[in-house]
């Protein structure tokens, strides 16, 4: 359809339904809100109205043998992450020929609804949180309130909220309004959630009430790495690149209709093409660094260098498969270093090719695991 035909189509439908809204997929920039790719969540908050589209299993219609249903925990995590970026979630469910929803769609959506009935304040009418995604979870916000969506409880039950500059008046659980002890040192807010007995919730929501104007999202602050979690995942979206290295989105598919979108650091072909991540290690100790990447067979067996705290670690890339949009994108987890520090502090993790050659790999994340 031409732009004029599309506009005519919109105009005619609005005669029938004046309050109808049109997705950006209508084309020609005529949509009322932005739709991303199927099963895609943007890497960072997006201004304006937008929507993320998922299906409950892998099918957009009814497929009797498709049992890859997302659990209520997965749905709640997707929902809270979409909300933490300022968006709306649309979840497709495929009924059978008689209009019946699959059993597991009913079961898991009812469980999600039960969670929303108690925690909906942190989702409905909220906007993105001004604290970037942490190992423990994500944040959403309303005027004077920041909602902490805790997916992963730290071992010591103390949630660190870094970069919180506002004055805090009180902290409490959304369910039950139970007051929680907290302390604030400089821009660090520590919340003690040890008194929360319900440790089976897929997402424990904590409310932080504060005074003053909401701070701007600081996407450049160091990524927190803590020994209070089994692993800390540093996504490619937080990378700073030099030379021809850059951060890209790669679309891939398990099979027709099932699309995935993965952000990676790509195009590192010479020592000048590097990527670095600013991290903050909160406790001394030994940490294993694992690179999660995709590497075509013809690009494998190249040497790379990881540098942290003045120490260099050499590695040789391992093969997975060439990226093709209509095929699965395969990733390998390759442990390349153990870094030891006797005190907490700020560090830069830098990765680059050892010498000029083919593309080193497509880096999805760095996984940092404390060694106990």
Secondary structure blueprint with pairings:
Layout: H1 3-16, E1 34-38, E2 50-55, H2 72-84, E3 88-92, H3 103-119, E4 127-128, E5 137-142, E6 145-150, E7 158-161, E8 167-173, E9 182-185, E10 188-192, E11 204-211, E12 223-225, E13 232-235, E14 240-241, E15 246-255, E16 258-266, E17 275-281, E18 285-294, E19 303-308, E20 311-316, E21 332-341, E22 345-353, E23 362-371
Parallel strand pairs: 1-2, 2-3, 12-17
Antiparallel strand pairs: 4-5, 5-6, 6-11, 7-10, 8-11, 9-10, 13-23, 14-17, 15-16, 17-22, 18-21, 18-23, 19-20, 19-22
Helix pairs in contact: 2-3
Tag the structure with descriptive keywords.
single chain, 372 residues, mainly beta, Immunoglobulin-like, Jelly Rolls, 6-stranded mixed β-sheet, 5-stranded antiparallel β-sheet, 3 helices, globular
Explain what the structure shows.
The chain has 372 residues and is mainly beta. It folds into three domains: 3-121, no CATH class; 127-217, Golgi alpha-mannosidase II (Immunoglobulin-like); 232-371, Sandwich (Jelly Rolls), CATH 2.60.120. Helices cover 12% and strands 39% of the residues. It contains three helices and 23 strands. It has helices spanning 3-16, 72-84, 103-119, and strands spanning 34-38, 50-55, 88-92, 127-128, 137-142, 145-150, 158-161, 167-173, 182-185, 188-192, 204-211, 223-225, 232-235, 240-241, 246-255, 258-266, 275-281, 285-294, 303-308, 311-316, 332-341, 345-353, 362-371. Strands 12, 14, 17, 19, 20 and 22 form a six-stranded mixed β-sheet that branches. A five-stranded antiparallel β-sheet has the order 4-5-6-11-8. β5 and β6 (145-150) form a beta hairpin. α2 packs across α3. The longest helix is centred in the N-terminal third of the chain and has 17 residues, at 103-119. The protein starts with a helix and ends with a strand.
